[in-house]
Each structure stands twice: as C-alpha cells, then as structure tokens.
C-alpha cells in the first residue's frame, strides 16, 4: 500500500516539476521570443518532455525492482523457517529413533544397512559402534543372530513372528520401505526401478519379559489343572471301585448315590478340560496335532463313553453309519473327539427321559458331515444367534440343568473352523435340536 | 507264579486304589513313591510291568522312563504311563521314550487299567 502511494507521489512530483518547467518555457517563449532564443526554448521544452518520460520510466522500474527484491528476501526467510522446522522435525524423529522401545533396522535398496537404532543393536547383540553401510549379508553371518538371518535376506513380508535369540525373545516384523515418497509417480516413469527405491524396514520388539510372564502363567495353570485332575481322578477311581464292589457289597441306595457322585465327577472332569481349552483359545495357545484318523471310530467311542448316561435316561440312541467306511481325514483326534463329546453331552443333557438321539455320519467328495439330532427341549428362537458365544446358555437349558459352563459349543466352533469345516444347527423349542458339522477331506496319498 | 507290577506314583490315595485293584486281580504289587525309588526298584526287582506317573517329585517320569530304557537290565520291561498330562506333546514324548501305552487318569476307570495291564502281560 505504502509502496504504491510512494510511486504515485514520485510521479506527481515529476509531473509537477515538468509542468512548472513547461509553464516557464511557454511564458518565456511568449514574452521574449526572437529567432535564436525560440530555438533554445523549443530544445528546452523537448528536453523537459524527454526527462519527464524517462524519469517516470525509471521510477516505475526501480520500484518494480525493489518489489522483486523484497519478495525474494521473503522467500529466503520462509525457506529458512521451513529448514528450521524440518531440522527440528529431524531431531525429534532421530530422538524417537534412538530412544524407542522397538529395535529398528533400515536396509537400503543396495542391501546395505542405512540405519540401525541402539535397541536393535542390543537385541541383535551387535557391539560394533558403527555398522552403517555394512552389507546386510555380512550382518546375517554373525553367529548370534542366526535365527533371524533368513528374514534379513529374504524379500518376504513378516508380521510379528516370535524369534528366540541368544539373550532376547523378539517379535519380528519385516516390511518393504519406499525411499521416494512419490513412488507412485515414479511407477508411471518407464525408467522407474522399484528395487533401487525399495529397501526393508525391520522392526524388533523385545518380548522377553512378556513371554517369561506368559510361561509363568501357563505353568501355573498347568500345575493347578494337574492338581485338580489328580483329585477328580482319585474320586473317579475310588467311586468306581465302590460301584464294582471292590470294597465289599453295597446296598441299592448306596449304589444309586455312588452312581450320581460318579456322574457328577465326570461332568467336573469335562468342565476342567473345557475351561483349560477355553483359556488356551483365549491365549492363542490352542494348538493342533493332526494325524490321519477315521471319524467313525471317534463317534463309536463317544457312544460307548456315554453308555451309562444313555442307559440312565433310557434314551434311544441310533447311529446311522455310512454305507461304506469313510475316507480317513487329517485332524487332531483329541480335539475332534472333544467336539463330538460336547455335542453328544448336550444332546443327552437336554433330552428328556425316554427321548431319542440320532447320529448320522456321511461324506461327499469334499467333506465328511456329522449330524446329531435330539428330541430335546430345543433352543428358543430369540436366543439362537448367541448359542456359540462363550459362556452363553439358553434360558430353558438353565432351567432343566444348572450344570453347564456354556463353553462346549464355543470350543466346538473354534475347533471345527480351525480345521476348515463349518458348524451349524437347526432347532425348534420343545421339539429338539440338530447340530451339524463338516470337515474337509484333504487328498492324502 | 503271580506277575510283578511296579507302580511309581507319588499320590498315596491313587497308588492305594490301583494296588488294591490289581492285587485283587492276582498281581503282586511293588510301590515306589518317587522317581528315584522307581528307578532303583525297576532295576532291583525287575518287575514284569511298570505303571509310571509323570509328575513326580525330584526325578520326573520322563527321566525315570529314559533311565529305565537306557539300562539293559530294565530296558525290556513294558512301561505304561499313567498321568494327567493329557497334552499331545507329553503323550508323544512318552511314546517316543519307549512307553507301550499311555493312560490319562481322569479318562480311564480302574477296570480299564486292569484290562490294559492284562492285555500287555498276556
């Protein structure tokens, strides 16, 4: 604003001076005109006009230059400010890089170490002060970091893989990193070489403490479960021996009570196993050991397992065997047994005395299908969606049988789905339920 | 001649029950209450069969099993593992070390144990 006023002021000044000069010239011309003087005056007039225009021109020009100069200075100032900010940002990032709890290693497109932070050095057990620029292949040769070496060299993406090193247990993640943030534009360029612009970012999380705590917890659970099981096993054995008459003849009433005690104890064993499984599922420590098995064997042994209960409730159990032996499948035998036992246990629990249970087993090209259908109390419509939830028990189930953890179907679903199969049911309240599951048949040579 | 069965089990109650059951079936029972005693009796008494618990004080069952299988004096004695460790790894480990069978206590009745013993000694 001020600058513009200044220019106008300058122009007005020059104009006024010139007008004044012209005015003087004209006055002189008219008052004292003779031949020679006239010429001089004309020259003066022309000269004044020339001065007027050139003066104006230069004033405008100088002002323009001035303007450009200030713009340039401002730009420089701005850049300096930006540089300062980026310097601060760089310092912050570098502080974070050096002090972060995770070990970070950056490998350039040429396979050389670009950056490594102290935590990564600590986890990897590297004592050398400066290993920047060292080819990663040399790093991979160090004896202490052998467990991690293959991941340093391969191009694969790794996500949170637990690796045991000499002094640390680390969780390793490896991901590609693009050094040019505008790599998308680069891709359009025919000369773009992604491998030159792409390195690797390796993140190491120290989980030594976590895994030791995890181990303490698991050891504790295992030891507690072991003690519980020793107690329930001794009850099982002694009651069974009472019932078998090993401690002398017992009356009918004593026998009835001992039988109930025996069944209750078996339910407790079942519950302990289910609780342990649920805890393992929660921990992600639920593992499978798969072998080649015949599902029919498991179904038959489950029927034998529940024989006393079946007889006790006078339930008609019918097992419709497949016409020919089913192909063997690769599954975790104990886990599938637990699924079938859980489904069978539910069918027995929620079917009234003298009811019926039908078990079917068949297969098509791709899968084995198991079905257990009972004439029991069924599942109320409005609660059907929750039936596989952990700890969920339908209201009518709670009414007739207070024992039950609500874990059986939760575990069954997890096991079947982890085996690549599916589990579902059809049910109508007061009429009965049918539970189904399928297990894929994998081609075995 | 009655067959000798050595039971290596630290739980007195369980040990007593099995002893009673197998004695009634005509077996001569020998008891050991920890791993060390178990190894000693396996070598000295040379039983016809060993019932071995896994979680034992001092020397655990896996070690007892490998010691028994290492020594030619006792290596041919069949060993049935009797435990509540029902994890697949434990069962595999036991079988790998030379156990003929694996009984999970809470899943078997004394009768079934007798049947297994009889089947092996037949």
Automatic annotation (TrEMBL), chain A:
Which SUPFAM superfamilies does the record match to this protein? ATPase domain of HSP90 chaperone/DNA topoisomerase II/histidine kinase, Homodimeric domain of signal transducing histidine kinase, PYP-like sensor domain (PAS domain)
Broad EC category: transferase
Origin: domain of life: Bacteria
A single GO BP term for this record reads:
cellular response to phosphate starvation
List, for all copies, the residue spans of the domain called Histidine kinase.
223-443
State any GO CC term: plasma membrane
The protein's name in its UniProt record = histidine kinase
Q: Which organism is it from?
A: Candidatus Nealsonbacteria bacterium RIFCSPHIGHO2_01_FULL_38_55
Automatic annotation (TrEMBL), chain B:
Response regulatory domain span: 4-120
What is the top-level taxon of the source organism? Bacteria
Which residues are annotated as modified residue 4-aspartylphosphate in the UniProt record? 53
Which Pfam family, any one of them, does this sequence belong to?
Response_reg
SUPFAM superfamilies given in the database record: CheY-like
A biological process from GO = phosphorelay signal transduction system
Q: Which residues form a coiled coil?
A: none
Q: Phosphoprotein among the record's keywords? A: yes
What is the protein named? Response regulatory domain-containing protein
């Amino acid at each position: 604003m001020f600058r513009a006023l200044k220019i106008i002021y300058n122009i007005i000044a020059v104009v006024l001076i010139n007008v004044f000069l012209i005015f003087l010239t004209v006055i002189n011309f008219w008052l004292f005109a003779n031949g020679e003087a006239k010429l001089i005056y004309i020259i003066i007039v022309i000269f004044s006009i020339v001065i007027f225009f050139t003066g104006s021109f230069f004033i405008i020009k100088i002002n323009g230059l001035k303007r450009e100069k200030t713009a340039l200075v401002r730009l420089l100032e701005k850049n300096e400010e930006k540089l300062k900010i980026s310097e601060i940002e760089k310092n912050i990032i570098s502080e974070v890089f050096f002090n972060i709890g995770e070990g970070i290693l950056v490998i350039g497109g040429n396979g050389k170490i670009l950056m490594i932070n102290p935590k990564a050095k600590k986890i990897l057990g590297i004592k050398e002060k400066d290993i920047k620029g060292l080819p990663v292949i040399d790093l991979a040769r160090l004896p202490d970091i052998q467990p991690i070496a293959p991941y340093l060299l391969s191009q694969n993406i790794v996500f949170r893989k637990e690796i045991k090193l000499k002094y640390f247990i680390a969780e390793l993640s490896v991901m590609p990193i693009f050094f040019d943030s505008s790599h998308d534009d680069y891709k359009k360029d025919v000369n773009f070489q992604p491998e030159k612009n792409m390195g690797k970012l390796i993140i190491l999380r120290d989980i030594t403490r976590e895994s030791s705590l995890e181990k303490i917890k698991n050891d504790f659970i295992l030891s507690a479960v072991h003690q519980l099981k020793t107690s329930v096993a001794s009850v099982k054995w002694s009651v069974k021996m009472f019932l078998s008459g090993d401690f002398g003849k017992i009356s009918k009433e004593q026998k009835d009570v001992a039988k109930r005690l025996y069944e209750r104890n078996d339910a407790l064993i079942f519950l302990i196993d289910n609780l342990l499984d649920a805890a393992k599922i929660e921990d992600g420590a639920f593992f499978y050991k798969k072998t080649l098995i015949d599902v029919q064997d498991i179904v038959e042994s489950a029927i034998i397992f529940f024989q006393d209960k079946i007889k006790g409730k006078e339930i008609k159990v019918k097992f419709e065997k497949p016409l020919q032996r089913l192909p063997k499948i690769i599954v975790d035998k104990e886990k599938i047994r637990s699924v079938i036992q859980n489904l069978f246990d539910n069918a027995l629990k929620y079917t009234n005395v003298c009811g019926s249970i039908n078990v079917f087993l068949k297969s098509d090209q791709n899968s084995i299908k198991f079905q257990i259908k009972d004439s029991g109390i069924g599942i109320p419509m409005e609660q059907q969606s929750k039936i596989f939830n952990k700890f969920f028990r339908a209201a009518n189930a709670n009414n007739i049988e207070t024992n039950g953890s609500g874990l059986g179907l939760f575990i069954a679903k997890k096991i079947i789905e982890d085996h690549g199969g599916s589990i579902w049911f059809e049910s109508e309240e007061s009429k009965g339920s049918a539970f189904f599951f399928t297990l894929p048949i994998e081609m075995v040579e | 001649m009655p067959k000798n069965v050595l039971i290596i089990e630290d739980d007195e109650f369980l040990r007593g029950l099995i002893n009673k059951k197998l004695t009634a079936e005509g077996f001569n029972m020998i008891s050991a209450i920890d791993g060390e005693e178990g190894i000693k009796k396996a070598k000295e008494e040379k039983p016809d069969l060993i019932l071995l618990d896994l979680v034992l004080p001092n020397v655990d069952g896996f070690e007892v099993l490998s010691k028994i299988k290492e020594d030619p004096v006792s290596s041919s004695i069949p060993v049935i593992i009797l435990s509540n460790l029902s994890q697949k790894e434990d069962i595999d480990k036991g079988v790998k070390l030379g156990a003929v069978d694996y009984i999970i206590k809470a899943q078997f009745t004394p009768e079934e144990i007798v049947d297994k013993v009889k089947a092996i000694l037949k």
